Amino acid sequence: ANATDVHYQAFMSELLAVDEFGHEALPFPPSPQAAVDRLHRPGGEYLNMNPYYVLLLDPGCTIDEVKAQFRRMSLQVHPDKHGGDPRAGTAFEVVRKAYEKMDDASKLDLCNRICLGAQKRVDEKVKQARRALKKEGKPEVVPEDTPSVYRKVLRQFTSKMFVEFEQRRQQLHERDEREKKRKAEEAQLDAEAAKQRVKEERAWERSRQKRVAGWRAWSSNSARGLKKPPAVKAEGQDERKNNFEDRGVEWRRDWR
Fold it and tell me: Does this model's pTM top 0.70?
C-alpha cells in the first residue's frame, strides 16, 4: 500500500492500538450490531483481508469449523436482520469473501501457510528483542512472553501478511490482464494481416485469367510469323576509324 494512503494508515493504527483485536475480548458470538460494526471500523478495507479476523477463527481451524462459523457470521450480519441497513449488506459481502478464501482444503492450507509465515516473523522479532536486551545486560524478558500479548501480536502480523499477499495477488492479476490485452491486440493485428493476405491472393487469382489471355495473345502473334524488329547493326572498326579521322580534322581546324 502507498504510505500516503489514509486508509492504510488507519489500518496500521488499528493494528497497533485496538484492544479488541483479540476476539476473546468480544462477546462470542457478537451481537448482530457489533458484528456489523467491527467490519466497518477504520482501516477495515485492509483489516478485512484477513479471513481469520472476519470469521473470528484461529489458524489451524478445520474446514468444518470454517463452514460452521460462516453460517453463524452470515446470519449475524444478514441485511434482513438489520432492516435493510446498507452497512449490513457490505458486511455480508465481507463475510462471504472471507469464506471463499477458506472454503476448500487447498485454500485453507494456503491461509494456514500465511499464518505460519506471520508466526515466523513474530518469533524472529522476539529473538531480536531478546538479543538486544542481552547485549545491554538486561533481563531477556519481552512483552510477547505473555500469551495474550503474543496472540495479539501474532494476529497483527497475520493481518499484515494477508494485506501483503492480497496486494501481491492484485499486482499479478493486473500484470496478467495487461499481458492478456497485449496478446489480444497482437492476435487482432495478425488476423488483420492474414485477412489482407487472403484479399491480395484472391485479387491475384482473379487477375490470372487476364495474364493467361495476354500470354496466349502473344503466343498467337508469334505463331503467325510476325517479324522481329531489325537488330541495330554494330559499327565496324574501319567505319569507326574513318569517323574518328574526319572528326580529328575538324577539331584541328577549329583549334587553329
Answer: no
